[in-house]
Amino acid sequence: MENTPTVKDIELAAKRLDGYAVKTPVLESERINSRLNCRVLIKAENLQRTGSFKFRGAFNMISSLTDNQKKSGVVAFSSGNHAQGVARAARILKIEATIIMPSDAPKIKIDNTRDDGANIILYNRTDANRVEIAEEIIKKTGAILVPPYDAPEIMAGQGTLGLEFCDQVKNQNTKLNYLLAPCSGGGLISGNAIALKERSQNTLIYCVEPEGYNDTALSLKSGKRQYIKPELNSFCDALLIETPGKLTFKTNKKLLAGGLVVTQAETAKAIQTAFEEYKIIVEPGGAVALAAILSGKIDTEGEVVGIVCSGGNIDASTFKDVLDGKYSV
Question: Is the pTM here over 0.85, yes or no?
Fold first, then answer.
């Protein structure tokens, strides 16, 4: 694949993932539905292998490599969820993996990546360049780079979530009026948009980002990729990026209805709600879409709204702080 993936590419990815990826459940809370006066369907991707949707794209890309490419191993850079997805996929496929991770990534993500047998190289975000480190490894070993989002194989793999979601909703004899999903580089939301525009054409699709890191929302408004200079700290480590991917934004510009932005306090409330009402543990970056509907960022009264909770890899200390209300302001 060299161009934007099609729904056929996503269907092929689903076949590759069959038996490896978890078909994650769709959850519902009568109390939340009543409170918001709409039907909220949670796609609990935090229950995916490695605790996030990233396994889908990583496995799809790595499993599609040639035998010669697999012999050279793979390399990736990530703050955690992509790292874990690549490490697990490489372990299953018996391929060597090297992962470049920021030293301040959540400990649970570093530990899980190491436990899956990956070689980890830690770097300091302020004085090192992860791309340059990866390029040096590729030069020395011939390893294949597995990008976190801006590759058609990655987008197609993430799009399998959308196909799965559509089938599950159809089995409930309903349809999605809206789909809200977290957005960093755009791989998840673009893959899902491709899938839904084929299977659920009338669904309005919105990306959701944390306050201060709304590069995709700004880019959608302007019609071209925007670069931001982050000025706020955020605990949404999985979503902290300065500009959308080139290939992903090409798709998102065509297919998304818009971008929504949530505060840290709104995200913390969503993590609490996910735990209390849906009985799931969701990391900050994985909770922003739920935060958007809970805080009324768009009018969904009387509608059926799909919400992707994309990951659950949160350190115990951060989760405790959220439940204790330390992020409520």
Answer: yes
Asked if residues 38 and 63 have their Cβ atoms less than 8 Å apart, the reply is: no
Residues pairing with 122 in the sheet: 101
Q: Is the pLDDT of residue 167 over 80?
A: yes
Mean pLDDT to the nearest integer, 82-110: 92
Q: How would DSSP label each residue in 35-81?
A: HHTSEEEEEEGGGSGGGBTHHHHHHHHHHTS-HHHHHT-EEEE-SSH
Beta bridge partners of 180: 206, 307
Q: What does the pLDDT average to over 136-153?
A: 94
**CA R_g for the chain:** 18
pLDDT tens, 258-290? 999 999 999 999 999 999 999 999 999 999 999
Sheet of 304-309: strand order equals: 26-27, 39-44, 304-309, 178-182, 204-210, 258-262
Question: Whole-angstrom distance between the N-terminal and C-terminal Cα of the chain?
Answer: 45
**DSSP assignment of 245-309:** -HHHHHHHHHH--EEEEE-HHHHHHHHHHHHHHS-----HHHHHHHHHHHTTSS--TTSEEEEEE
Residue 192: band (very low, low, confident or very high) from pLDDT cuts 50, 70, 90: very high
Which of 217, 205, 218, 212 shows the shortest CA–CA distance to 267?
212
Confidence grade of residue 234 (pLDDT, cut at 50, 70, 90): very high
Domains, the chain:
7-53+151-323 (3.40.50.1100), 55-145 (3.40.50.1100)
Determine the Cα–Cα distance for residues 199 and 202; give it in Å rounded to an integer.
9
Please count the other Cβ atoms lying within 10 Å of the Cβ belonging to residue 66: 8
Coil, strand or helix: which one is 204? Answer: strand
pLDDT value, residue 57: 98
Residue 104 CB-half CA count within 13 A: 12
